[in-house]
Amino acid sequence: MNIVNLVAEKGAALVPMPTQIKAAHLLYKAKTKLGIYTEFPEFVEAPIPDVSTLAIEDIDVSNPFLYRQNRWESYFKRLRDECPVHYQKNSAFGPFWSVTRYEDILFVDKNHKLFSSEPFIVIGKAPDELAVEMFIAMDPPKHDVQRRAVQGVVAPKNLKEMEGLIRERTRDVLDKLPLDAPFNWVEDVSIELTSRMLATLLDFPYENRRKLVYWSDLAGGGAESTGGLNDSDELFRGMVDMSRHFSRLWHEKKARAAAGEEPGFDLITLLQSNDDTRDLINRPLEFLGNLALLIVGGNDTTRNSMTGGVFALNRFPDEFTKLKSDPSLITNMVSEIIRWQTPLAHMRRVATQDVELNGQTIKKGDKVVMWYASGNRDERAIDQPEQFIIDRKNARNHLSFGFGVHRCMGNRLAELQLRILWEELLARFDKIEVIGEPEYVQSNFVRGYSKMMVQLSAKPSEA
Amino acid sequence: MGSITFIEHHGAEHAVEIETGKSLMQIAMDNGVPGIDADCGGEAACGTCHVIVDGNWISATGKAGDEELQMLDMTPDRAPTSRLACQIIATDAMDGLVAHLPEFQM
Ligand code: HEM
Ligand code: FES
Question: Which of A131, A321, B4, B25 could form a disulfide with B85 if both were Cys (CB 3.0 to 4.6 A apart)?
């Protein structure tokens, strides 16, 4: 029993959320001092050896520098070819199975009865005290009920209402970019646009939109969960701040609705106008979990697809020429960008019984990691997978959004935002040049860029 | 050779020839019927080949199985005769079948 749950059950409505999380933080600190928790060691970057020098059992794809050092393709290729369901028994995250081929990943993702999403969907763990309730880490039937309550906000019908606003906000960002001078694309475009999109989704106070990005970066970036850089103290402080803002948002929204404001298309309005969720605020863990999941889910995934698309078109310049001569390829290209980038490298499951998979026996209770990044490069399922081809046939058939009951809820929103971005970019710029090499995030989960310098040239004006 | 008709949400009709042994999803894709995405390529794992089988034709196609219901449960525009088109294998007995396409796939 963790303290947040305890407090929540005994008197959720009485104890404000920020206080609950503070209490959890104190408990966490106490346990660490008493040695009940050991501090998780920081990862120190060292050169990763060529995969051909390793014995198969020594291959450890949980290394958070694999992507940054550009070793991931050769490592996963060796696993796909020689040992597609692979056991690593002493990683920093404990023993785990890697599932690396497209077909096998589909099998695991589809069979939620054999492979549970509880308690976490990343390779490591978050402090127990922070186990807010997110349906991405729940099995049916609980998962289905919660997902249904919020899904409407990103359903295509609602997106049609939001499209105009997203486009307007995208144009505004692009119109302010410098011409013929390098700037950091990650900061000025990808992060800015994503924060605007998330603020639109929640109707979150616009001037505070960067907070949404900050909180979700915190939530996904711990050493213990994904090999990242963030520390737990900062995480707890961030979550206190987040719960404070979200509960305020809820109450203000309610007051505005009571005062006769037109209902919006945002998540809070949706929750408050549905009988099942109009009192969600009284179930704080669920409330926080659902809001947090939306911003975490939509944050670095979309951001890194925005950066990844520009990077891919620079690595494959013929494709940029193709795109400029036929902008109707944008929709197909968006799927190809999402495949090529694969913003989330993995999702993990726990086997609920012994399972045979591709010649290996996975034991009940074992950790099973589906490596989408590898499945999307599986030459058995995808033709010339390492190539970026904007008019690829069946480009939609990729693993980046997962499959089965947990398939990404925000996939249509992500595609919409990327399509708008590319439509507006092509309307304005002739060249979008990456200057130098991008810098990469430290993580075995997020495949992302921390910095990428870009220089734009305007389209010649039509005389 | 019989035919199947897909009707888009706004009313456009597409009559296509039955190819027995193929799924309705595949037949729709092969004939360029718009409104089906089929993101998982026919594995009952994405829910984006949702169709609503017209009235009595559900007896010819059969009802959705458990695996299929899991995915259908989360699609918008869900109806009592909803099916995943990739899980319906065409037979000659489906000559004349009508399947409605939802407004959106998700
Ligand atoms: C390119 C962008 C995105 C990628 C690559 C991505 C990827 C994923 C993946 C891999 C999963 C888990 C699938 C599985 O377990 O089978 C997922 C789930 C989810 N995503 Fe996304 N995502 C993206 C954008 C978004 C956006 C924009 C939102 C919302 C605003 C979002 C919200 C969610 C939610 C709520 C879930 C949990 C679904 C469930 O458990 O039923 N995602 N996403
Ligand atoms: S094509 Fe994915 S469920 Fe039918």
Answer: B25
